[in-house]
Amino acid sequence: MCGFGGYLGSIRDAEALLARMIAAIAHRGPDEQGKFVTPDAGLGHARLSVIGIGDGQQPMSDVSGNLTIAFNGEIFNYLELREGLIAKGRRFRTSSDTEVILHLYDEMGEDCLPLLNGDFAFAIWDNRRRRMVLARDRMGVRPLFYTNKDGVLYFASEIKALMKVPGVSAEIDPIALDQIFTLWAPIAPRTAFRNIHELEPASVMIATQGQVTVKRYWHLDYPHRDAPSTVTNEDDAAEELQALLTDAVRLRMRADVPVGSYLSGGLDSSLVSALAAGVTPRKLQTFSVTFDSAEHDESAFQTEMASALGTHHRTIACRAGDIAGVFPEVIRFAERPIIRTAPAPLYQLSGLVRQAGLKAVLTGEGADEVFAGYDVFKEARVRRFCGRQPASRMRPQLFRRLYPYLPGLQQQSVEYLAAFFGAGNTALDDPLFSHRPRFKTTAAAKIFFSGDLRATLKGYDAAEDLVSQLPQALSLWHPLHQAQYLETRFLLPGYILSSQGDRMAMAHGIEGRFPFLDARLVAFAARLPPEMKLKGLVEKHIVRKAAKHLLPTPIRERTKQPYRAPDASSFVGAGELDYVRDCLSEASIAAGGLFNAKAVANLHEKCRTQPVSGFRDNAAFVGILSTQLWQKNFTGQEVGAARAA
Asked: Using omega within 30 degrees of 0 as the cis cutoff, is the peptide bond preceding 552 cis?
């Protein structure tokens, strides 16, 4: 795991620029740095040594000197690929997976990408063809950003590095901000920064001095809803799932350093940890975050699972004030406004892993997207059920069963539940049917947008923009698969793997590894009939079945409790920090220009004086505060400098 940056074109003081770019992302690779410069292109690299510690330095050139790579990530099947290349007569000078990519590219060009089972972003300078090749993994685990300035293409693992390019400056993209306040994340290639772009997952960019082309080398796909399933035996499917996941964990335990595991106490991380404990030559180290709030805490399940596995278990407590304490750093590393505080405890957790002396950790992320674990999938099923009898008073009561961890919801009337979840109000053929309530509830926070921002947006609709990005085949898929596509294609790389994943872990130089996102598992899950994933209202049914002999029954049978953290309540009260008051003061909000200063002042006072449980106000508070911090961090605008009189 590492960070890199580079350029294609002719520039002045190339070595000095690369040094500044890499220094800006040195947290991604604290072990060593390197540079490669030619008159037409350059690469810089900050290394976190996990595989090939002694001989994996980068940028790395092949023996001819014609190919040079800067690589961030891991190719988990590199040993198998290496054996195949050796059989073809290829000779290796290092033990690293980086050199495997160079040889494969030399053999096949960009057509080698589907062979790579891993989490990666890389840049290859192909001197023979005078081109720069940028590529990113299928699911979007590892980031890669780019911009053009004065005819030169610049790229880097994080936008901070691009900010070191002369003439490149930070300016909020209002469309991206609207997307964040609707969809939780910008729609790639758009980023929070105007004129800075993200290479989309599963994409490759071929850049020459005169032309840039981007194409996808892999697509998430599902079978036609009426096609006979190729998977019919549930027991066989569970057995195949267990075998695939076992091998995915085995591959991700490959490293020249110890690999630990996150342990939330839920089904996914527990299953990954159980499989990891079975293949590690030493006692597995596991890590958890706990909360003072009973609504968010899962420590009892974490302790039970750690005891069952006999792991060396460490926890970090996220107490009152901790989220506010680290939030400015969270936004600096996330490089975008966010509407939830959930990344903050994960920032703390990765710090705990670093303190323990580890560099890599397994996580159960991805299982909910790939095997239909989120409440949004169950909720959509209930809404479709209600839609067939919109006058029913019994059917909306099912929503209470979906959210046992939300006490406020349990007290609401049937009429409220039906209205809140839009039961029967959305056309069943709407491509966003499953996510409309979420998008509508989140977008309600845009009531705090300023008049100037509204005028700039000119009625822009982020949800309809998302519809325009959907594949034509989506209408032919089962409704569950349509919902899974939305979650996996957009929210997973845009928020879960980014703001909660790579950026929080790499802030402390920690590499997250995701067995459930193994390419073979993703393909297998897409083929499964919907009822094997969501059986009635039981999520991840096939995963539970595969875990039957691996986990204690209370862990295996627990209802999904989504990972959440306290939102607005984290920032207000007796210990409110100065930066919160400053960022949300009427003078600061007015100076930022993006929000209605009076409305924000009222929201701030409301959150100070009474418990705020509604999603809109929580999302608005966190979103506004994070946007103000983003402006302060990246534009240099001192949003907290001018205090209200």
From this structure: no
3-class DSSP state of 505: helix
What the block records as the tokens of 400 is: 């209470």
**Euclidean distance between CA atoms 473 and 223, whole angstroms:** 9
> How far is Cα 450 from Cα 455, in angstroms, rounded to an integer?
9
Q: Which residues does residue 7 pair with via DSSP β-bridges, in sequence order?
A: 42, 154
Residue 362's SS3 state is strand
Q: Residue 382 contacts by C-beta under 8 Å, 6 or more apart in sequence? A: 395, 398, 399, 402, 421, 423, 537
φ/ψ of 193, rounded to 5, equals -95, 125
How far apart CA 498 and CA 268 sit, in angstroms, is 19
DSSP string across 266-284: SHHHHHHHHHHHTT-SSPP
Q: Please count the other Cβ atoms lying within 10 Å of the Cβ belonging to residue 643.
A: 12
Chain centroid offset of residue 520 CA: 20
Amino acid residing at 537: L
Distance CA 150, CA 161 (A): 17
Chain position carrying tokens 């099912």? 398
Non-local (6+) Cβ contacts of 550 within 8 A are: 242, 271, 274, 275
What pairs with residue 313 in β-bridges?
286
- Would you state the structure tokens that stand for residue 584, as one six-digit string? 């949300």
- CA 430/CA 67 separation, integer angstroms: 48
pLDDT digits (tens, 9 = 90+) for 518-534: 999 999 999 999 999 99
pLDDT at 418 > cutoff 70:
no
Structure tokens at 537: 């209202």
Instruction: Report the candidate in 15, 142, 125 with the shortest Cα–Cα distance to residue 76.
Output: 142
User: What is the Cα–Cα distance from 509 to 511, expressed in whole angstroms?
Assistant: 7
Q: What is the pLDDT of residues 100-146, one digit of tens each?
A: 999 999 999 999 999 999 999 999 999 999 999 999 999 999 999 99
3-state secondary structure of 259: strand
Torsion of CA 63, 68, 72, 73, to 10 degrees: -40
The residues near 446 (Cβ < 8 Å, ≥ 6 apart) are 178, 181, 182
Residue in the structure block whose two tokens are 């067995």: 515
pTM above 0.70, yes or no: yes
Cβ contacts of 294 within 8 Å, gap of 6 or more: none
